[in-house]
Amino acid sequence: GNAIVLPGDLSQEERIPPMFDRLESALGPVDILVNNAAVCPSGPITAYSGDDWEATFRVRRETLREALFLW
Questions:
Q1: Torsion of CA 40, 44, 50, 55, to 10 degrees
Q2: How far apart, in whole angstroms, are the C-alpha atoms of residue 8 and residue 16?
Q3: DSSP string spanning 6-55?
Q4: For the chain: N or C, fewer Cβ within 10 A?
């Protein structure tokens, strides 16, 4: 099979459709989407604030939702 890596900031909604355009231009229709978006605060996990945890989970949750709705 074939794959393509498209690094980008998926927290910026307007960047998602052009990424899919580039992907489909290179490989054709998307059959499988792997969401590897992440935010990783620095420092030990025991030092994460509530905002750090929220940012970590928000990026994973929201980027998948946005990619699916905008696709």
A1: 0
A2: 9
A3: ----TTSGGGHHHHHHHHHHHH-S-S----------SS-GGG--HHHHHH
A4: N
Check if the beta carbon of residue 49 is closer than 8 Å to that of residue 28. no
What is the per-residue pLDDT across 4-61, written as a single tens digit (0 to 9) for each? Answer: 888 877 767 788 888 888 988 999 988 877 777 777 888 898 999 999 888 888 877 7
C-alpha span between 9 and 67 (Å, rounded): 12
In this prediction the pTM is: 0.56
